[in-house]
Protein 1
Amino acid sequence: MKMLIAIIRENVLEEVREALIEAGITRITVSRVSGHGQQKGEEIYRGQKTIPNLLPKIKIEIALNDEFVELTCQTIIKAAKSRSGPDGEVGDGKIFILPLEQCIRIRTEERGGQAI
C-alpha cells in the first residue's frame, strides 16, 4: 500500500479530479494549502513587483494499493501539466509516494488493501 500526495495548481483541480474519476480512482482527499518551491509568484503592489512568501496550492492525498500507483501518477501528470510546452512550467506541482503501513476502515474494521 502507498500514500500518494500530489501538490498541484489550484486552477487544475477539477481537471485532475475528473481525470482520476475517469481512471477509476474515486477516493481522494483534497486540501487547500500554501507553499513554494522553484516557482516564484509575482504580484504588483503600488506599482512595485513583490514576491509573496507562499503561493496557494491544492494538496491531493490518495491511499492506493500498489498496482494503482503508476496509473494514478500518470493520470495526475497528464491532467496537471501545463500545456505551454512539452516540459510544462515551473510550478506545475509534485507527486510524493510514501509507504503506507496500515489502513483500517472504521465502519467494518477491515484492514490493509481491502480497507482502501
Note: The beta strands are 2-8, 29-35, 43-45, 48-50, 55-64, 93-99.
Protein 2
Amino acid sequence: MYNSLNTMPTFVLKTTSLDFQSYKEKLQHALQDKNFGFVLKGSLSTAITLFFVQGLRFISGVLIGRFYGAEASGQLTLIVTVMGLFSIFINFGVKEALQKLIPELREKYNLKTAYSVFLKGNQLILLLSLLAGVVLYTIAPYLTTYWEEPNMLWLFRASGIFLPFFVLGDLNYFSLRAALKVHTANMSLMIPTIIRLLVLLIITFYFYNSYNPIYLHWSTLCVLPWLFSLYPIYKYFHQPAAKEDKITTTEHKEIMLLALPMLMTYLAFAVNNSADVFILKDNDIGTDLVGIYKTCTNISMLAATLLVALNTTVQPKMTQLYAQNNMSEVQRISVKSSKLIFLLSIPVFIILLFFSKQVMWLYGEEFMKGAICLSILTIGQVVNTICGPVAQLLNGTGYHKQFRNISFLGMAINIIANLILIPFYGIMGAAIANSISMMVWNIVGTFYIKQKFGFYIVYIPFVNLNKKNL
C-alpha cells in the first residue's frame, strides 16, 4: 500500500508533463502553419491587447461609476451613442470596404495601389466629417429636448469637433490590420488607453468635474488614437508604397459602390447597439438606469473579446486566400478559428454568467440592478462566439450584400423586441431583445454559409458538423 501511494505523485507528474508536452507540440505545429499560424499569432496578440485595453477600460468604468455615479455614466452613454451613430454616416462603410480592398489589391497588384485606395478613403471621410459636424450642431437642441437634458446642448455640439478624429483613428487602425501590420495596430490602440486611465485618476482626484468622463472620451478615445496611428501609417504603409512605381487606379466611385452595402450593414449593427437607448428613454427610463444598462452591454463585450481579436485578424487573410481561389484553406482557417476562440472564451463566460452580481458590485451598489441584464447579454455573446467569424467570411469573400440583408433582419427583430419588451421589463427587456437579435443573425448567417460554401464554421463541443476533419 505504501509503495503504490508513494508512486502516485510521480505518476501524476508524468501525466501532467505528457499533457503539457502534447499541448506544446500542438501549439508549435499550429504556429508553423503558414496561414493559420498568421491568424493565431495575430489573434493572440490582439486578444492580449484587447483584454489589456478592456481591462483598463473596465477599471475606468469602475472609477467613473464609483466617483461620478450612474447619472454621469448615463450622460456619457448619450454622447457615445450620438457620436457612434454619426461616425457610421461619416465612415459610410469606407472602413469595411478598405478591409477588403487593401489585402485584395495588394495581392493582385502591389502595396502602392492599396495605399492609394487608403488615401481616397481618407478624403471621403474628411468631406463627410464636415457635413456631419454641421448636422450635429443643428440638431443638438432637438436631442436635448427629446432626452430632457438641456444642460447637454453644448456637449452635443462640441462632439461634432471630435468626430473626424474618432473616425479617422478607427480607419487607420483597421487599415494597418488590413495591411497585415497587426502588432503595430495593437500598439496604437494600447498606448492611448493607458494614458486614459492615468489622466482619469489625475483629474478625478485633483480636478474633479462632473463632465470629466465626457472630456476624457473626446481626448483619449477620439484624438489620441488618431495621433498614435499616424507614425505607423507613415512608416509601414506610406514609405514602402512610395518606393513602388506601378499603380493601378481605383476611383472614388468604386470604393463607394463597395462601401454602400457595408454602410447599410454597419448601420444595422449601430441601430442594434443604440435603438435600446432611444426606446428606453422614450419609455421614461431614467438616465441612471440607461447608464447601468449600457455598462452591462460594455461588460458583456468582454465575453466576445477573443472573437473580436480573431475577426480583425482573420478577415484580411480570408480575403487574400479567396483572391487566390483557395477556398479549402478559407474553410480550414474558419473552422479552426471558431473552435479556438470558443474554448479560450469559456472562463469569461463562466464569470459573467454566474458571478454577474459581484461584477456589477464593483461599479457601485446602484449598478447591481443590472446583474440579470449582464447574464442575459452574456448568453447572446456565447452564441455569437460559437458561430465564429460569420460577418468576416461573408464580407471578405464578396457576399457583403447578402450579409447586409442578414444584418437588417437582426436589426428588425431587435427594434420589434425592444418595443414589445421594454415597456414591461425595462432594461431587462432591452437585454433580452439585444441577445435575441444577436442569436438570430448569427444562426441565419451560419446556415447561409453552409448553403453557399458547403460547410459550417460553427463550433459545438463534441459535435463534428462537417464530414471532413480539418
Note: Residues 34-91 form the longest helix (58 residues).
Protein 3
Amino acid sequence: MEFNATFLVSAISFILFTLIMNKIFYKPLEKVMAERQKFIDDAKADALNSSTKADAILKDRENRLNKSAADSKKLVADKINEANENSKAAAAKAKQKSREEIASAKSHLHDEALETTEGLKSRVKDLAEVISSKVLGMETRIENTDNEIVNRIMN
C-alpha cells in the first residue's frame, strides 16, 4: 500500500471532521441526553416519593376511618344503653306512680265504704225504728250502742 499526501489529507480531514462534529453536534446532543436522563431520574424519584406519601396518607385515612367507625359504634351503643336506662327508669317511675295512685284509690274507696257503712247503719236504725213502730204500734227508739244488731242486719 502506498501512503501519499491524499491519504494524509484524508486522515487529517477525518480527524478535523470528528473534532468539529464532536464540538458542534455530539457534545450538545450528549448534554441534552444527560439533561433528559436527569429529568427522567428526578421524575422517577418524585413519583416514588409521591407513591410512598400516598400510601402513608391512605393508611392514615383508613386508620382514621376505622377509628371513626369504632367511635361512632361506641357512641351509638352508649346512646342505646342510655335510652334503655331512661326507659327503665321511666317505666319504674310510672309503675311507682300507678302503685301510689292505686293505693290512694283503695284508701279513698275504703274511706267511702266506711262512710257508706256508717250512713247505712243510721238508715238501718231509722228503718228498724219505723218498722218496729208500725209493727208494734208505738214509737220505739234503738240506741247506737247495739252495733252488733245493725252489723247482723247488714251482713
Note: Residues 43 and 49 are 10 Å apart (CA to CA).
